[in-house]
Amino acid sequence: MIKAFLFDLDGVIVDTAVFHYKAWKRLANQLNFDIDEEFNETLKGISRMDSLDAILKHGGVSLSQEEKEKYAKIKNDWYLELVNQMTVNDILPGVEIFLKESRNLGIKIALGSASKNASLILEKTGILGLFDALIDGNHVSKSKPDPEVFLKGAEALEVEYDACVVFEDAYAGVQAAKAAGMVAVGIGSCEVLNNADFVVKGLFEMSPSEIITKIL
Ligand code: BG6
Ligand code: MG
Question: For the whole model, what pTM was predicted?
């Protein structure tokens, strides 16, 4: 029996995946190389410092720990310039109604995100109050594909792992959900998220009860 839904944030609830991409691309360009969308796909769901390490490796750049911290902060400042302009209009289509209908069905709701900016984003878009628990980059020590973020989400909701459904737009995020023993619904394209139990284009595509029926 399904008792909880755990949502990734960037690319599932809000369209911030594109903000991360813009800010990382700007940083790569400043360091005299470029990243494309295909490479960016591998960064989704990955923590800020792990993303920076992957980008520097991609560009063949090596930096000291101190420099890495400086560049991670620069990227985050650029990212926050975009986040600070967010409003309720930046919530992805169908999300609010999906969250409200889930609540009405008695399903518990948690956020399971690698982002350290998660509560700011939920506050800016006005949907913080729709979540029963928030597990983000400030609460975990291991990046997706490690299941830590989703295991902690289920524990915060006091729901068994196999009664949880995870909604994810990242390959690494789906890996994390499966490693936690949960059902993984991919948000995006079937080709990219071929490890998910099934894939929808967005939360507008199916209602919570249709998702539950499909799983049973
Ligand atoms: C994830 C994103 O949700 O959060 C990654 O998919 C991002 O792209 C990660 O790097 C960490 O986010 P933040 O906001 O803490 O830099
Ligand atoms: Mg995501």
Answer: 0.95
